[in-house]
Design brief:
There is one protein chain. The chain is an alpha+beta fold. Helices cover about 25% and strands about 30% of the residues. The protein is built from 5 helices and 14 strands. The strands form 4 sheets. The protein has a 5-stranded mixed sheet with strand order 2-1-3-4-5, sandwiched between helices. A 4-stranded antiparallel sheet has the order 6-9-7-8, with helices on one face. α1 (about 15-25) runs parallel beside α5. The chain is flat and about 65 Å long. It starts with 5 loop residues before the first strand and ends in a 10-residue tail after the last strand.
Length: about 280
């Protein structure tokens, strides 16, 4: 279905470096990027341009516009978000969403990877020692930095700082001009190797979904849509919150299949039971 076709990776931040090798091997496609497509028009991490839509809508717009200007019918786009982890308290997370669209076959498949492996951070800096401590924590200079006047100031920003000379020069300039400095991690993919790794894992999830075919209609995207709790406790035999089955659903014909005991165990340890270990 995909072999030999061209696939656009809709990015201006070098995400193709991790996406293309995985996708080309798994799907047999030829990946390329559009140098004249400014994906920042749909929103920037630094806030100069606000992202108006949710991540999947933004990724879809990237795919659709990219395919239009390059005259191809397949595209992949990535959209990242950073902030508190949805389930792990007091932990920051990188939430990466990848969307694949094949207009020719009317297929749309997405994958998501949420990881606590992120250096996402920012701080108001008052001294050189504070600057050096912050830089060390966020893995500078292998990971880029951004300097601005204040956290919510979008007018004066210097991005993509990756060496100490430039960092110190920018710091002294902002102190002299504004009397204050806010330093944050540059979360654009080409300046953030940690984020690139998360994008790579999301890409693998995506191609696994694409290569999973529906038993009924034989189209890609047959994947897990629900995890049902209820694995019984080995001691009291009450249902626990642990997964007893996965539900797979086709995105095209909506055929469903339930796979019981996906973790190859039919009972749960009492330590995970709300009755035995409340």
């Amino acid at each position: 279905m995909f072999s030999g076709r061209k696939l656009l990776i809709a990015t201006k931040h070098e995400k193709e470096k991790v996406i293309a090798p995985i996708v080309e091997i798994a799907m047999g496609v030829s990946c390329f990027i559009a140098h004249n497509f400014d994906t920042d028009a749909l929103g920037t991490f630094t806030g100069e341009i606000e992202r108006k839509d949710d991540p999947i809508t933004t990724a879809r717009k990237k795919c659709m516009h990219g395919m239009l200007i390059t005259n191809v019918d397949m595209a992949i786009a990535s959209e990242g978000s950073f902030g508190p982890h949805p389930t792990i308290f007091f932990s920051l997370a990188n939430d990466e969403l990848l969307l694949f669209i094949d207009k020719k076959n009317e297929i749309e498949i997405f994958a998501r990877e949420i990881s606590t492996e992120t250096n996402f951070n920012g701080a108001a800096i008052k001294t050189l020692n504070e600057l050096k401590d912050f830089a060390e924590i966020v893995q500078f200079p292998s990971h880029g930095l951004i300097i601005r006047k204040a956290k919510d100031d979008f007018a004066f920003i210097e991005k993509g700082i990756t060496d100490w000379g430039k960092l110190l020069e920018s710091y002294h300039k902002f102190v002299k001009l504004y009397g204050c400095v806010y330093v944050e991690t540059d979360m654009r993919a080409m300046y953030n190797p940690t984020r690139m790794k998360v994008i790579g894992r999301a890409t693998q999830k995506l191609v696994d979904k694409i290569n999973s075919l529906c038993p009924t209609c034989n189209l890609p995207g047959f994947s897990i849509t629900n995890a049902r709790p209820g694995l019984v406790c080995s001691l009291c035999h009450q249902a626990t919150r642990s997964t007893i089955s996965y539900v797979y659903t086709c995105t095209k014909c909506f055929f469903e299949k339930e796979e019981k005991y996906p973790h190859n165990k039919q009972v749960e340890d009492p330590m995970y039971c709300d009755y035995c270990n409340p």
